[in-house]
Amino acid sequence: MPEVLTCPPQGRPALVLNADFRPLSYYPLSLWPWQDVVKAVFLDRVDIIAEYDTVVRSPSFEMRLPSVIALREFVHQDRSPAFTRFNVFLRDGFQCVYCGAREELTFDHVVPRSKGGRTSWTNIATACSPCNLKKGGRLLKESGLSLSRTPERPSNHQLQQVGRRFPPNHLHETWMDYLYWDVELEA
Asked: What pTM was estimated for this model as a whole?
């Protein structure tokens, strides 16, 4: 369980919520630096939901720094997630699909490129270095390894659901009403 802070995290970031009051992203958590938040407030693009005790001043202006903001216009997030190493690791829960290890993670072609395998969502899996070395350039049936899950293209929603299992180490208390982490982690 992450530590809930009563004083703001270093840098005073604000949790950014969509117009429906849900975070734009859980992993990584949608945070903006205070400078961007102040600019968005002045441009009337966000509503301030909660504030820190910290005040910023100019010769003619003073305001408490926002800790939670909501966008005034809803941002649709329909596009497919980018195919990146990080997103493959996130899809697979940051663990080897062959043995479940969580360290020394690598990018594995299920069907090796030497055997016509492509670099795609459906042919790339997260593997620890020992399993990746054991499999080498062979097919699964030749290597003696088996997948715990079949690689597939995730939706943004699926990646966000997985990301909710990995809360950041520090959360400000004003953010807690808007974040819904998986119950199994709180136990």
From this structure: 0.73
In angstroms, how far is CA 82 from the centroid of its own chain? Answer: 13
How far is Cα 66 from Cα 92, in angstroms, rounded to an integer? 35
Cβ atoms within 10 Å of 179's Cβ, excluding its own = 17
Instruction: pLDDT tens for the chain, 187 residues: list them.
Output: 566 666 666 789 999 999 999 998 887 889 999 999 999 999 999 999 999 999 988 899 899 999 999 999 999 877 788 999 999 999 999 999 999 999 999 999 999 999 999 999 999 999 999 999 999 999 999 999 999 999 999 998 899 888 888 877 778 889 988 887 543 433 3
Distance CA(30)–CA(150), nearest Å, equals 29
